[in-house]
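OP here, attaching both records as promised.
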Amino acid sequence: KLNGFLEADIDMGGEEIAPIRPSSVIIYDGSSEITELGYLGEFDGQNHKISNYTVRVSSDEASAGLFGTVSGTVKNVIIDNAHYDNSGEFDGRFSALVGQLLTNGVIENCVVVNSTVEADARVAGAVAGCNFGGSINNCVSLNNTVTADSRIGNLVGDNGNGKKLVGTVTNSYSDKSVVGTTSKSLKGNTSNCRDNVTDINQIAYLLNTQNGTTENSGIWSASSEYPIGADESNKAVYGIIEYKNGVVTNTYYVKGGATFTFDDKEYYTNVMFNNESIAAENGVYSIIVPEQDSR
C-alpha cells in the first residue's frame, strides 16, 4: 500500500483525471467475498484543496471519483468544482471524492463543494457514492448537485444496504441531506449529523462541538465558502448563546478572539462579558444578556 499527502493546493485547470484504484466489481450486500479492496493506504490532504477536475467515465470502472474504491484512509482534503457524469448509462458507485468506501475504509475531515455528480437512477454522493462498512467522520457537503436514484443522500449516496455491510457517518453536515432515508435502508448508522445547514460558521461550530454535544475542539474555522482547518490566521468558531429569562433567544457563531457587537456594546468571544470572565460550558460561551439589553 502507498501513502500520500499534499504540500499545497492543486488546481487541475479542468483536466480529466483517472480515478485512483477504481473497481470493476460493484459491491451489493457483502454476501460474497470482496476481492477488490481498492486504495489501502493513507492519503492526507493536510487541509489543502484540489479543484477544477473532471473524473474519467468508463464502463470498465464501477467505482469512480478522485478515488474509485477505498479500504484505507482519505482525510483532511477539500474538493472544489469536481465533476462526474455518466448520465446513468451504467451502474456503479460514483462521487467527487470516493466512489466506493468499504469495510475498514475511513473518510475524515473532508469537504466537498461546488461539484456535480450525475448518474441518473444510480448510486452517487458528493463525498462518497456508497459507504459499505466504512466510517465517514467530520465531513461536509455544500453547494453540490447529485443526480442519481431518488432514494440516495447528498453527502453519501448509500450508507448501508440493510444486509451485511452497513456504513457509519458521524458529525457530518450537508446543505441538503447527509444520507438516504428511504425504505431501502440507505441511512445506515448516523450520529451527530444534520441536514439542510447552510451557515458556514454554524457548520464549523457544529463540527467543533459534535453537533453541540461536546466541548469545543477548536479544530475548525470558516472561510466565506466552506469550513476550513483552524490556524493562527483563521481562529476556531465558537457559539455565543443569548438568553432571556432563562430561554435561548438566539445563537451567534463567531471566530475566537473576534469582537462581537450586540446593541452597540462590544464583547470578546473568549475573554469578557460585562466586565466578568465568561466560563465555557461544553465549549460554548453562554452570555446571559441583561433584560434591558435583550432584543
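Record two, same layout:
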Amino acid sequence: DGGRRQRLSAGLVATMAAVAVLLGGHASALTFVTSGAFGFDGQPSPSALVAGAAIVAAHEYPKLAIRHVDTDLDAEAATLAARILAEAIGGSEPSPIAYRGDARLTRRHRSVEIADGSGGCALRSGVYRLTGGLGGIGEALAEHLLSTHHASVVLTGRTALPNETEWPTVSVATHGTEVAARIATMVALRRHEVPVEYHAVDLTDLTAMSALIDDVEVRLGPITGVFHLAGVASRRMIHFLTPGTSAPVLEPKVDGTLVLDQVFADRDVEFVMLFSSVLAILGPTGSSEYAAACSF
C-alpha cells in the first residue's frame, strides 16, 4: 500500500543520508547491520534494499570503509554483538558477510556453462505474462515465446497506447517516439498470428492486476508462467536522494513483486521469474536506488 511504499523509500533514504553525514564528520568506517537481507528462506525482506545500496555507497564514498553484515536473530545478544564488532573492526573478507546459525557466509561468483535447458521449467504453448514487456528484453522474450513455442503472450507496461484502430496513423510526429516505437513492436509481434496483447496497468495496484489476470484467464486460459521484467533505472547520487525520487524506482521491483506474489498465490502457475540487474552486485556510482530495488 501507499504507507508501505513511503516507509521503504524513507527508510532507504534515511540510511543513505547517514552515510553522507558520517562523511562530513570524522568517521572513517561504517558497518551496515541487517537481518534477512539475503533471502535464503525465500521470504522477502526490506533489509534486502540495503544490500544493493551499501555496495553503491562504498563506491560513492571511498573515504569511508563501508561493510555490510547480515545476521539472523536467533543467536544470543552477546554472540551477535561479538560477530558485528569482529566484522566492523577486523573483517578482511569483501562485503557482504552473512551469518546463518554458526555458519559465516561470504559472496563468491563463478561462471556456469549451461549446456541445455534440462532441469528447469520447459516453456510450452501456454499463456505467459510479461511485465515491462515492451522493453528490449521483453520484446526479445515475447518474440521467442511466439515464434518458437506458439504461446499466447500478455504484455503489460506503464505507457498507455491509443486504440488499435488508430495504430495505422500513429507516428513519432503525432504521438511521440515512445508510443510509436511500442506500437511498431506490437505490430511486429502480431505477425505470428498467435494471441499477443498489451495492457497499460499499474503494476503496484493489486485490484487492477487481479482484475486483468481474471479477464485474461477467461479469454485465453490459465496463466502458465510469469516474467517480471518491469523496472525503472536511475542515475542519482546518494547525496541527492529523497523519498519522492526513490519511490518510483523502488515500486516496480519491490511493490510490483509483492503484488505479483499476492495475485498468483492461489493460481496454478508453473513459475514466476524475477529479472534483476548486475548493478545489484557491482553497485556503480549513481545507482543506489536501482541497485537497492534489484536486490529485493
